[in-house]
Design goal:
The protein has 634 residues and is α+β, with helices and mostly antiparallel strands. 28% of the residues lie in helices and 21% in strands. The longest helix has 22 residues.
Length: 634
């Protein structure tokens, strides 16, 4: 694996036998990022105008974003080191002065670097929350030392939140923490705004530690780095006498959430690649650190650090931050399809949330205990998450974790819905990404079953209706609309996990003559993946040995294929997906059974096809017997 683009302290293989990382590595990573953005600061340090594609909010808003998100990182670094009293006091003193000056200039309305005013549903609200949290954590070193006139200007800027309207999702919490900061410094605020925001998230709590981010089925990493993060940091700001008992509720919910959260990370440290804003990267570790900070985690200290350090090391070894010390818009390299229109050059610096562990004292067991292995390193894992409608399965022989999706579509409750590739697929993993470039959306094959129009245009999986999720199986339904036809055709799907395999059983209602097609995982690399296919099977494999295969067990033709794309995948410029087809549907109802494999092990799909038996009974049930003798009925 390549070395990171910046120097790191020596590894500690006694305390950290799995990653080698210590607190000093996290401090070095933070320092590298904070020093790298300095050349892009405006003269008064109120904005950081980083290189890269601008967001839809414009260059000034993007500059504020650069200040706010790096300030959050700086605040964790400063507070975690106790201000400027340690061995690195000169560097920390410079950080304090730099961001204090930025606050002074940014809130000066006559300055050419002035921050945009807080208006309803403006991007500034997001960044204000970061500044509020940073000011709270660094209060003795920054806020308390600001000139009174500057404090008044900061308060005046934050006052734009009072009585303002936010988007009705995690944005409600930006108002909560920002107005709580106003309360903490004795400034005017509206307790009604805080209570309304905290009351609103109760409507989105769905149990077992899971929220949906706003109305609908919106499940992704925002649950950890927003829906859990802000309420508990608000409680930290309000204090035990000011949280009205809410803090205890939030700690209990986070504890439930964290019980299964380590199952989302592969042995190489990679988080499952699903959902929006993936360019935030190690922000996915924020809820794990938060559990330790809020003293509510069910995870052993050594597991907490192993998970977080593994994720940070995973990206560092793959060139993040880059040779300039910057975080590009993408996953590893720059890859804009992994971003959203609101993502600007500084958006990736929400990775700062992943440094929350620096607030945990250096002598805490989370930093001193010996690392423990992740679940995917110890044994084959099967985890059912009924709230989001997901199955997770990890395998220790290759360290890959796969997420099977029968519940999250990120659509509002009403309307036609969309089919975002980061939500609509049947499966995601720690080793693959969906084909997500705009030029590939309409024809993407990966982890999707489609009814094809006469010209080959596929139907999409938009609204997902979850049916069941327990044990090693989950089911859902979606209505497929064939381009050129007004009717919708229901497809009911069930996934059953077996080792590294996913068995998919589809009940399809379709008009006569259409083609049914299903794809497996897309694998991607810097070089063109190898491909093979035979009667009833197809596979593709990267040079590193990651293999994706599909095997026809029932309802498919013998002819198979491999779909290739270029510059469509976050894992590499060359990608490929194996797929199966059933040409000329007879009309009415049909069944299609597929074995989907994603592994770093060898795969012999022709042997699997011969050794797995599949039969459809008269009553519609499908019975599958695996080579080890286990039989499942769907």
């Amino acid at each position: 694996m390549p070395a990171p683009h910046f120097p790191l302290p020596p590894t500690d293989r006694v305390r950290s036998p799995l990653t080698g990382w210590t607190r000093a590595h996290w401090e070095a990573l933070a320092d590298r990022q904070l020093s790298a953005v300095l050349p892009y600061a405006t003269p008064g340090f109120a904005q950081y105008r980083l290189p890269g594609r601008a967001s839809w909010s414009g260059v000034v808003s993007d500059g504020l974003e650069g200040f706010a998100r790096t300030f959050l990182l700086a605040s964790f670094r400063i507070a975690g080191a106790g201000g400027s009293d340690g061995s690195d006091s000169a560097a920390l003193s410079h950080l304090i002065e730099r961001y204090a000056q930025g606050l002074t200039v940014g809130t000066d309305r006559d300055s050419t670097e002035a921050w945009p005013e807080l208006t309803d549903c403006s991007q500034q609200m997001v960044e204000a929350a970061a500044i509020a949290l940073g000011l709270h954590e660094t209060r003795p070193w920054i806020w308390d030392r600001l000139d009174t006139r500057v404090q008044e200007r900061v308060v005046d800027w934050f006052s734009g939140f009072v009585g303002a309207k936010t988007w009705d999702n995690n944005w409600r919490l930006f108002q909560v923490v920002s107005e709580q900061f106003l309360a903490s410094v004795g400034a005017p605020y509206d307790q009604g705004d805080i209570d309304a925001g905290l009351d609103r998230i109760e409507d989105w709590y769905v149990g077992d530690g899971w929220y949906t981010d706003g109305d609908g089925r919106n499940f992704d990493y925002y649950i950890g780095w927003a829906m859990h993060l802000y309420p508990l940091l608000w409680a930290r700001m309000a204090g035990p006498d000011g949280d009205g008992g809410r803090g205890a509720v939030y700690r209990e919910r986070l504890a439930q959430f964290l019980t299964t959260y380590p199952q989302f990370f592969g042995a190489d440290g990679a988080p499952v690649h699903q959902g929006r804003s993936l360019t935030y990267r190690i922000a996915a570790t924020a809820p794990v650190w938060l559990g330790a900070l809020a003293d509510c985690t069910p995870l052993a200290p050594g597991l907490t650090r192993r998970l977080a350090s593994g994720a940070a090391r995973h990206f560092a070894e793959r060139g993040v931050p880059d040779e300039r010390g910057l975080l590009p818009l993408g996953w590893y390299d720059t890859f804009l399809p992994a971003t959203q229109p609101y993502s600007g050059p500084a958006s990736p610096y929400w990775a700062s949330k992943g440094f929350l562990g620096l607030l945990v004292p250096a002598d805490h067991p989370v930093w001193t205990d010996r690392e423990l292995p992740l679940p995917a390193e110890k044994s084959t894992q099967y985890t059912a998450l009924p709230a989001p409608g997901w199955l997770l399965h990890g395998t220790p022989h290759d360290g890959v974790v796969r997420l099977v999706n029968h519940g999250s579509d990120h659509n509002p409750p009403d309307g036609p819905g969309s089919d975002d590739p980061h939500y609509a697929k049947f499966a995601y993993s720690t080793a693959t990404a969906p084909e997500s470039a705009p030029h590939a959306w309409d024809r993407a094959v990966d982890n999707h079953i489609a009814l094809l129009a006469a010209d080959g245009t596929p139907s999409r999986r938009r609204r997902i209706l979850p049916l069941s999720c327990q044990g090693r199986r989950a089911s859902s339904r979606h209505d497929a609309r064939i381009p050129g036809m007004d009717a919708e055709f229901p497809i009911e799907s069930t996934s059953v996990l077996h080792g590294p395999w996913e068995l998919r059983v589809h009940r399809v209602r379709a008009p006569e003559g259409v083609t049914v097609r299903e794809g497996g995982h897309a694998v991607a690399d810097v070089v063109r993946p190898h491909a093979e296919q035979g009667p009833g099977w197809a596979l593709t494999r990267t040079e590193s040995g990651l293999t994706s295969a599909v095997v026809a067990l029932y309802g498919w033709d013998e002819v198979t294929g491999v779909a290739r794309e270029v510059e469509s995948n976050a894992y590499g410029p060359h990608s490929a997906t194996p797929y199966l087809r059933a040409v000329r549907h007879p009309g009415g109802e049909s069944a299609h059974v597929t074995l989907v494999a994603l592994t770093r092990d060898f795969v012999h799909p022709w042997a699997l096809r011969e050794s797995i038996t599949c039969a459809r009974e008269d009553d519609g049930r499908v019975t599958v017997t695996f080579p080890d003798g286990e039989t499942v009925t769907v």
